[in-house]
Design a protein that fits this description.
146 residues; alpha+beta; 2,3-Dihydroxybiphenyl 1,2-Dioxygenase, domain 1; 2 domains; five-stranded mixed beta sheet; 9 strands; globular
Protein backbone atom coordinates (compact mmCIF):
# COMPACT_ATOMS: atom_id res chain seq x y z
CA UNK A 1 0.00 0.00 0.00
CA UNK A 2 1.35 3.47 -0.82
CA UNK A 3 -0.87 5.65 1.37
CA UNK A 4 -2.62 5.17 4.69
CA UNK A 5 -5.31 7.87 4.36
CA UNK A 6 -6.09 11.37 3.12
CA UNK A 7 -4.98 13.40 6.13
CA UNK A 8 -6.26 16.89 5.31
CA UNK A 9 -6.78 19.53 2.65
CA UNK A 10 -5.07 22.90 3.11
CA UNK A 11 -6.60 26.24 2.11
CA UNK A 12 -4.60 29.48 2.19
CA UNK A 13 -6.85 32.33 3.33
CA UNK A 14 -6.38 36.05 3.75
CA UNK A 15 -8.88 36.26 6.63
CA UNK A 16 -8.47 33.44 9.12
CA UNK A 17 -11.46 34.49 11.26
CA UNK A 18 -13.75 34.50 8.20
CA UNK A 19 -12.47 31.06 7.17
CA UNK A 20 -13.12 29.68 10.65
CA UNK A 21 -16.61 31.23 10.66
CA UNK A 22 -17.46 29.73 7.24
CA UNK A 23 -16.39 26.19 8.10
CA UNK A 24 -17.93 26.43 11.59
CA UNK A 25 -21.25 27.40 9.96
CA UNK A 26 -20.82 24.35 7.75
CA UNK A 27 -20.58 22.18 10.89
CA UNK A 28 -16.84 21.74 11.40
CA UNK A 29 -15.09 22.40 14.69
CA UNK A 30 -11.68 23.86 15.47
CA UNK A 31 -9.31 21.07 16.41
CA UNK A 32 -6.28 23.25 17.08
CA UNK A 33 -4.49 26.50 16.27
CA UNK A 34 -0.79 27.31 16.11
CA UNK A 35 1.73 29.75 14.68
CA UNK A 36 4.27 27.94 12.52
CA UNK A 37 7.70 29.14 11.43
CA UNK A 38 11.29 28.03 11.32
CA UNK A 39 13.86 26.49 8.98
CA UNK A 40 11.84 23.31 8.38
CA UNK A 41 8.82 25.33 7.17
CA UNK A 42 11.05 27.37 4.86
CA UNK A 43 12.56 24.19 3.43
CA UNK A 44 9.27 22.34 2.90
CA UNK A 45 7.73 25.41 1.19
CA UNK A 46 10.86 26.41 -0.72
CA UNK A 47 10.37 29.98 0.57
CA UNK A 48 12.59 31.95 2.99
CA UNK A 49 11.13 33.46 6.18
CA UNK A 50 7.76 31.70 6.24
CA UNK A 51 5.55 32.68 9.17
CA UNK A 52 1.99 31.36 9.16
CA UNK A 53 -0.92 30.83 11.50
CA UNK A 54 -2.77 27.57 10.98
CA UNK A 55 -6.12 26.33 12.22
CA UNK A 56 -7.10 22.69 11.89
CA UNK A 57 -10.82 22.07 11.44
CA UNK A 58 -12.47 18.65 11.86
CA UNK A 59 -15.70 17.23 10.44
CA UNK A 60 -18.34 16.00 12.92
CA UNK A 61 -17.57 12.34 12.15
CA UNK A 62 -13.94 12.92 13.17
CA UNK A 63 -12.47 11.61 9.91
CA UNK A 64 -12.14 14.69 7.68
CA UNK A 65 -9.77 17.54 8.41
CA UNK A 66 -9.13 20.86 6.76
CA UNK A 67 -6.19 23.18 7.44
CA UNK A 68 -6.72 26.93 7.12
CA UNK A 69 -3.42 28.76 6.63
CA UNK A 70 -2.87 32.51 6.97
CA UNK A 71 0.55 33.72 5.77
CA UNK A 72 2.05 36.51 7.87
CA UNK A 73 5.23 36.31 5.78
CA UNK A 74 5.78 36.39 2.87
CA UNK A 75 2.84 38.35 1.47
CA UNK A 76 0.11 36.43 -0.33
CA UNK A 77 0.46 36.01 -4.08
CA UNK A 78 -2.64 36.84 -6.14
CA UNK A 79 -3.72 34.41 -8.83
CA UNK A 80 -5.65 35.32 -11.96
CA UNK A 81 -8.52 35.19 -12.08
CA UNK A 82 -8.89 35.56 -8.32
CA UNK A 83 -12.32 33.94 -8.39
CA UNK A 84 -11.71 31.04 -10.73
CA UNK A 85 -14.67 29.34 -12.45
CA UNK A 86 -15.50 25.65 -11.92
CA UNK A 87 -13.70 24.69 -15.15
CA UNK A 88 -10.31 26.19 -14.11
CA UNK A 89 -7.32 23.85 -13.95
CA UNK A 90 -6.21 22.59 -10.55
CA UNK A 91 -7.98 21.92 -7.28
CA UNK A 92 -11.37 23.59 -7.59
CA UNK A 93 -13.60 22.17 -4.92
CA UNK A 94 -13.88 20.34 -1.65
CA UNK A 95 -17.10 18.33 -1.27
CA UNK A 96 -19.01 17.76 1.93
CA UNK A 97 -21.96 15.43 2.50
CA UNK A 98 -24.60 17.31 4.51
CA UNK A 99 -27.81 16.30 6.29
CA UNK A 100 -29.95 19.13 4.91
CA UNK A 101 -28.80 21.03 1.84
CA UNK A 102 -31.37 23.78 2.31
CA UNK A 103 -30.40 24.40 5.95
CA UNK A 104 -26.69 24.36 5.13
CA UNK A 105 -27.07 26.78 2.22
CA UNK A 106 -29.16 29.12 4.41
CA UNK A 107 -26.53 29.10 7.19
CA UNK A 108 -23.68 29.79 4.77
CA UNK A 109 -25.63 32.50 2.93
CA UNK A 110 -26.31 34.23 6.26
CA UNK A 111 -22.51 34.60 6.57
CA UNK A 112 -22.18 36.02 3.04
CA UNK A 113 -21.47 32.89 0.99
CA UNK A 114 -22.96 32.75 -2.50
CA UNK A 115 -24.16 29.94 -4.73
CA UNK A 116 -21.98 29.45 -7.81
CA UNK A 117 -24.89 28.11 -9.85
CA UNK A 118 -28.06 26.68 -8.38
CA UNK A 119 -29.24 23.79 -6.22
CA UNK A 120 -29.97 20.80 -8.47
CA UNK A 121 -31.14 17.24 -8.09
CA UNK A 122 -29.23 14.34 -9.64
CA UNK A 123 -31.70 11.55 -10.39
CA UNK A 124 -33.20 10.23 -7.13
CA UNK A 125 -29.78 10.09 -5.46
CA UNK A 126 -28.53 13.57 -4.51
CA UNK A 127 -29.32 17.24 -4.21
CA UNK A 128 -26.17 19.20 -5.00
CA UNK A 129 -24.76 22.71 -5.21
CA UNK A 130 -21.52 24.65 -5.36
CA UNK A 131 -20.92 27.56 -3.01
CA UNK A 132 -18.06 30.05 -3.02
CA UNK A 133 -16.02 29.64 0.16
CA UNK A 134 -12.98 31.32 1.69
CA UNK A 135 -10.27 32.52 -0.69
CA UNK A 136 -12.67 31.94 -3.59
CA UNK A 137 -12.61 28.13 -3.38
CA UNK A 138 -15.66 26.17 -4.38
CA UNK A 139 -17.28 24.13 -1.63
CA UNK A 140 -19.49 21.41 -3.07
CA UNK A 141 -22.41 20.25 -0.92
CA UNK A 142 -24.34 17.03 -1.39
CA UNK A 143 -27.45 15.74 0.38
CA UNK A 144 -28.08 12.02 -0.08
CA UNK A 145 -31.70 11.20 -0.95
CA UNK A 146 -31.50 7.43 -0.52
Amino acid sequence: MTIKRLDHVSIVVDDLAAGIAFFTALGMTVEGEAPVEGPWVDRVNGIEGVRVDIVMMRTPDGHGRLELTKFRNPKLVDIEPAIAPPNALGLRSVMFAVESLDDTVARLRADGAELVGEVVQYEDKYRLCYMRGPAGIIVALAEELF
